[in-house]
């Protein structure tokens, strides 16, 4: 190490091995702080403030079919050490449709950074590419690009929908030929990324290329690099893996460059390269086996002076490993040699800093010392098994020296061919070490770790050159300002959000909030928004869905505000790509899944939640029913009161015009008197004084009601005399039921009513138990058919003993074949664990 500033343990603590330093809470800065010390302190303070988290979901299968269930085990870890995290206690898991709609959400209680759950891919859902995402509220402080996200192929297979196998796939299967590849649709997006960040005139450059089809998948291109006169600069280059590749050249002064590319469909197109700068820094990193060789150069434009020196800073997941200086004003490049053995596994962030402490160039590389995941050795007690036979499985986890290692993992046993349907799907190692620290979608992440080779290492380096580091921005870290953390860590279920201006959506600080919970308990409290207009209510027990009404007022009393409750990261971006043409293996899988679902339903019609049997014909029968506007058990009924005079606003044409609701009521109910003009109106029932006003189960005042428009209202119920006794008072009561307060109202996404919001906050989801019969025990009746065909076993919670071992039993079903056992998890130290094995079933049918 060149810089001797790491003395007296200042702000950094030695973690493991020479040169490896963990960023800890910063101590008071020393009286005289040089640039290197300042950078180290600011990086330390940043990580101490943001405490980043990561989430990962281990699934029972890599692909699914309609009518199946996604079984998952969740791991939430701190982003630095990958150890089980305790900052957050609540995890949200969403299934997002190809149209960017949340079709299912699970709210899970985290215990020691772990949770398990399941999501039904109901047969009402269309086949397509879905997105599975998982996040804590605290994770959103790093930006919504860093929540867990995974694309899932969902194929049509439910026996209660239309033909499961697409005709094109059926024809290809019958002909014995592979299904055709999806045709490219439109011109691909091609981008160029200079290594280090910029092209500089007169300095050698490596430029990475990434080509992506309109559907979001990488496509290969080839071509030449030309200058503005169409003179050839690079005679030929081509992408090598998923549309990524690189080339080298030296940009000359006064020239502009572009690529002339041959596209997948056979056409050609030109794409510009970034413009070279007259002066600046370039950074080049070369893999030299046991070390990385880093070179930095600077080119000074005429009339300017080159800097005398530069500093190099390297870190992995917040571990600051090295800061060193080199002279930069000579003819030779400044060179550093970084021994890989000094770094933990993961993305190495290399940053070039100038004499003033300003980052000028950065580059990512990948460090892998040993296997990406500790191997879990999985063994079965026999080489093959019959039908409905017990399979005794043992799992052992050990380090490189053969010493046992404790681990907490999940296990899936599925049909062997299922794993081959998406062989490059992510794993816990590829996620924690790679994709969780990159913004955006990474295609086929498992490819880089399945069978390490020179080709996969080159492809991974190309990925890092093009995808880039985005977990923090240097100008934010070195600004001297506290890190922004707008989202609080959930220690329990919470209802949070923001109060904004009605039209400009400007945050409203010091807004007065009234919180009314009507179910499962009744409670009322008040609060005030912070300087950013945000609020956070806690105290839900999570045992049942809570129904809450929020009323917000400005500090001056006005109700012309909008309440936006947090519903998770926004669903933005282009639609997900379509399913490719199904290969024969997928076609076979859909048939087996379809048969399994039919067998399951025959055994137990109520087994699948939400399953609907269609195509039931009723001849010559007409069924009609009058709509119940506000049913007696509606959660918006305060105290469950019923019996008033109900006015259905949806059947009144004038109520759809947006006029004042009190004007709509004028003359419609006997004994109700409305006088005056908006907003100065008065109401009486049988001349008994001002009635009590109730909005979606919450008592409000007349002024608030006067600001509501009728097209937001579903119904109004007027309680007179003894009907209103339950509410107290002597002037009767008027209950207003808004459309947004009705969970079945399909227009609820048209925007909130001013100053009020009714929210249903789901309790913690209780994961179901995977169906796993145990044969051999005496029973009174003969067992029925075993429907399991695609998946035999799922256990989200397995722990090794002191010897690093765990054991469990799997029972085979009524089908022969090869089944794959997959175990994934973590050690207490944060090391990923993964292992696979096969189980052969050869029984007599």
TrEMBL record:
Domain of life: Bacteria
Domain TonB-dependent receptor plug: 656-731
Pfam families reported in the protein's UniProt record: Plug
Protein name (Swiss-Prot/TrEMBL): TonB-dependent receptor plug domain-containing protein
């Amino acid at each position: 190490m060149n810089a001797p500033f790491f003395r007296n343990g200042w702000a950094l603590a030695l973690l493991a091995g020479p040169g490896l330093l963990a960023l800890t809470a910063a101590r008071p800065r020393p009286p005289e702080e040089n640039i290197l010390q300042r950078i180290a302190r600011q990086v330390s303070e940043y990580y101490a403030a943001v405490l980043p988290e990561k989430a990962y979901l281990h699934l029972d299968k890599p692909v699914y079919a309609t009518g199946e269930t996604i079984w998952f085990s969740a791991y939430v870890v701190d982003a630095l050490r990958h150890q089980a995290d305790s900052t957050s206690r609540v995890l949200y898991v969403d299934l997002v449709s190809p149209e960017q709609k949340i079709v299912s959400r699970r709210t899970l209680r985290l215990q020691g950074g772990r949770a398990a759950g399941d999501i039904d891919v109901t047969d009402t859902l269309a086949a397509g590419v879905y997105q599975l995402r998982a996040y804590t509220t605290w994770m959103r402080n790093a930006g919504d690009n860093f929540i867990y996200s995974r694309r899932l192929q969902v194929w049509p297979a439910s026996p209660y929908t239309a033909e499961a196998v697409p005709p094109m796939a059926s024809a290809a299967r019958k002909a014995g030929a592979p299904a055709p590849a999806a045709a490219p649709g439109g011109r691909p997006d091609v981008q160029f990324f200079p290594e280090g960040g910029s092209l500089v005139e007169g300095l050698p450059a490596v430029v990475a290329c990434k080509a992506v089809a309109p559907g979001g998948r990488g496509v290969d291109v080839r071509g030449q690099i030309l200058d503005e006169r169409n003179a050839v600069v690079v005679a030929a280059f081509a992408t090598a893996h998923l549309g990524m590749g690189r080339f080298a050249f030296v940009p000359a002064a006064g020239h502009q460059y572009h690529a002339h590319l041959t596209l997948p469909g056979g056409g050609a197109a030109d794409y510009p390269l970034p413009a070279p700068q007259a002066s600046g820094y370039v950074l080049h990193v070369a893999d030299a086996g046991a070390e990385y060789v880093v070179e930095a150069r600077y080119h000074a434009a005429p009339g300017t002076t080159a800097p005398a020196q530069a500093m190099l800073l390297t870190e992995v997941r917040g571990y600051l490993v090295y800061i060193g200086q080199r002279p930069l004003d000579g003819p030779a490049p400044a060179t550093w040699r970084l021994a890989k053995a000094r770094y933990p596994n993961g993305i190495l962030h290399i940053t070039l800093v100038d004499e003033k402490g300003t980052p000028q160039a950065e580059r990512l590389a990948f460090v892998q010392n040993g296997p990406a995941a500790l191997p879990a050795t999985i063994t079965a007690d026999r080489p093959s098994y019959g039908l409905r036979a017990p399979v005794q499985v043992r799992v052992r986890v050990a380090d490189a020296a053969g010493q046992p290692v404790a681990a907490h993992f999940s296990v899936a046993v599925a049909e062997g061919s299922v794993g081959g349907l998406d062989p490059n799907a992510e794993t816990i190692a590829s996620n924690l070490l790679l994709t969780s620290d990159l913004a955006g979608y990474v295609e086929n992440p498992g490819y880089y770790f399945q069978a390490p080779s020179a080709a996969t290492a080159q492809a991974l380096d190309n990925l890092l050159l093009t995808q880039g580091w985005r977990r923090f921005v240097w100008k934010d870290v070195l600004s001297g300002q506290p890190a922004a953390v707008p989202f609080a860590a959930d220690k329990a279920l919470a209802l949070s959000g923001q109060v904004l201006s009605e039209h400009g959506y400007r945050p409203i600080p010091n807004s007065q909030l009234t919180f009314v919970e009507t179910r499962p308990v009744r409670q009322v409290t008040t609060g005030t928004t912070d300087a950013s207009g945000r609020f956070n209510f806690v105290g839900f027990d999570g045992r049942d869905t809570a129904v809450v009404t929020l009323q917000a007022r400005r500090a001056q009393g006005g109700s012309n505000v909008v309440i936006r409750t947090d519903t998770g990261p926004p669903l933005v971006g282009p639609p997900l790509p379509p399913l490719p043409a199904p290969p024969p293996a997928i076609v076979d899988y859909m048939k087996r899944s379809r048969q399994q679902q039919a067998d399951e339903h025959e055994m137990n019609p109520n087994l699948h939640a939400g399953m609907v049997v269609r195509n039931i014909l009723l001849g010559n029968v007409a069924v009609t029913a009058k709509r119940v506007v506000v049913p007696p058990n509606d959660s918006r009924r305060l105290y469950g009161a019923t019996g008033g005079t109900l006015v259905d606003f949806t059947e009144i044409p004038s109520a759809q015009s947006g006029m004042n609701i009190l004007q709509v009521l004028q003359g419609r109910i006997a004994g109700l008197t409305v006088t005056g003009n908006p907003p100065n109106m008065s109401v009486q029932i049988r001349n008994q004084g001002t009635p009590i006003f109730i909005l979606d189960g919450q008592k409000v005042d007349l002024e608030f009601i006067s600001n509501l428009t009728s097209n937001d209202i579903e119904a109004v119920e007027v309680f007179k005399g003894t009907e209103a006794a339950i509410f107290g008072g002597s002037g009767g009561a008027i209950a207003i039921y808004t459309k947004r307060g009705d969970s079945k109202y399909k227009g609820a996404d048209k925007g909130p009513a001013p100053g009020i919001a009714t929210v249903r906050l789901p309790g913690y989801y209780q994961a179901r138990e995977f169906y796993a019969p145990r044969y051999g025990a005496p029973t009174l009746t003969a067992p029925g058919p075993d429907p399991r065909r695609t998946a035999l076993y799922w256990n989200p919670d397995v722990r090794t003993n002191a010897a690093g071992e765990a054991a469990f039993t799997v029972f085979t079903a009524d089908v022969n074949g090869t089944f794959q056992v997959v175990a994934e998890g973590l050690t207490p130290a944060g090391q990923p664990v993964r292992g696979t094995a096969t189980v052969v079933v050869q029984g007599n049918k």
